[in-house]
Amino acid sequence: MLDPKKIEQIARQIHNSMPKGVKEFGDDVEKKLRTVLQSQLSKLDLVNREEFDTQTQVLLRTREKLAAMEQRLDELEARIENPQAGIEKKTEQAE
Q1: Listed residue (15, 51, 18, 47) closest to 31, CA to CA
Q2: Each residue's pLDDT tens digit in the chain (95 positions)?
Q3: Angle, in degrees to the nearest 10, between helices 49-81 and 83-94
């Protein structure tokens, strides 16, 4: 899921951007911020970068296969519509 160091960094950035009066509460505020952030972020449906990249590659391969299947389907439909053209094409390829 999310790297605890990233959550800590975000909590620190929020803490540093708070007004001076609020900062005086010190580490307690930062700890509570970290806890709230982790709790809220865990509710989100997130994936890590590695999983995202893997799924992107799977999608690309799937699209390539789909394009090839669509082309093949078009060729088969063309043969059905004009069976003589399919025979002539085979003859040309054999020569």
Answers
A1: 15
A2: 567 788 778 877 877 787 776 666 666 777 787 888 888 877 888 888 899 999 999 999 999 999 999 999 999 999 898 877 656 655 566 65
A3: 110
Q: Which two tokens stand for residue 79?
A: 């043969």
End-to-end CA distance of the chain: 60
Predicted TM-score of the model (pTM): 0.46
Quote the CA–CA distance of 8 and 82 in Å, as a whole number.
67
Structural domain boundaries in the chain: 1-46, 47-94
Rounded distance between C-alpha atoms, residue 22 and residue 17, angstroms: 10
Q: Is 15 in contact with 29 (CB distance < 8 Å)?
A: yes
- The rounded distance, in Å, linking the Cα atoms of 40 and 19 is 23
Residue with tokens 């975000």: 10
Within 10 A of 62 (CB to CB), how many other CB atoms are there?
10
